[in-house]
Amino acid sequence: MKAERNNLVLVGMMGAGKTTVGRLLARRLKRSFYDSDEEIERRCGVRIPVIFDIEGEAGFRARETQAIAELCALDGVVLATGGGAVLAEENRRQLAANGTVVYLHARPGHLWQRVRHDRNRPLLATPDPQKKLEDLYAERDPLYREVADIVMDTGRQSVQTLARDLLARLNPLCKLSA
């Protein structure tokens, strides 16, 4: 395993299932679970759209980089990152150096079906949110692939099936005991 720490890191687009799958994996592995977006909200005391409104995307990204550095310093955790975490080279370096990185891949059409009614997605607050999602996918997919040790297609299987299949792929790669 290339990682210095025994973390499991989930990356991918909004709506790919990082938080849902991450919570399930953490329970099955008897590990602590962290979601970098939830951690930022906890620290700031407000939801991410409010941070975007006050500080803009740049302010949010600075907070995200700080949170990821601190979360990556932990050992033996499951970490779900925000969809844009891979945009910063420093974040990609931290994630790759401190855990086994899994890209939960989903096609833009599937992602749109999952997030189209979610009002907690500030990047989709545009006149054409579906087009914005497709543009974000085109920009980020190569970055997710760059940092990933494993790419898992989320497809239409259940969260339980996805977690089981992911654990089967991970076991030969890294020590996953609690």
How would you describe the overall organization of this protein?
Helix content is 53%, strand content 13%. The chain has seven helices and five strands. A five-stranded parallel beta sheet has the order 2-3-1-4-5, sandwiched between helices.
Topology:
Elements: E1 7-11, H1 18-29, E2 32-35, H2 36-44, H3 48-72, E3 77-80, H4 89-97, E4 99-105, H5 108-115, H6 129-147, E5 150-153, H7 159-170
Parallel strand pairs: 1-3, 1-4, 2-3, 4-5
Helix pairs in contact: 1-7, 2-3, 3-4, 5-6
Spatial strand order of the main sheet: 2-3-1-4-5
The strand count comes to 5
CATH topology: Rossmann fold
Which regions are unreliable across 5 or more consecutive residues at pLDDT < 50?
Answer: none
CA distance, first residue to last residue = 17 Å
Structural class computed from helices and strand pairing: alpha/beta
- Molecular shape: globular
Assembly classification: single chain
Task: Classify the beta-strand content into a percent band.
Answer: 5-15%
* Radius of gyration, in angstroms, nearest whole number: 15 Å
* Biggest β-sheet strands, sense, barrel: 5 strands, parallel
CATH class: Alpha Beta
Total number of domains = 1
CATH architecture: 3-Layer(aba) Sandwich
Strand/helix succession? EHEHHEHEHHEH
Count up the helices: 7
The CATH homologous superfamily is termed P-loop containing nucleotide triphosphate hydrolases
Helix proportion of residues, in percent? 40-55%
| Global mean pLDDT | 89
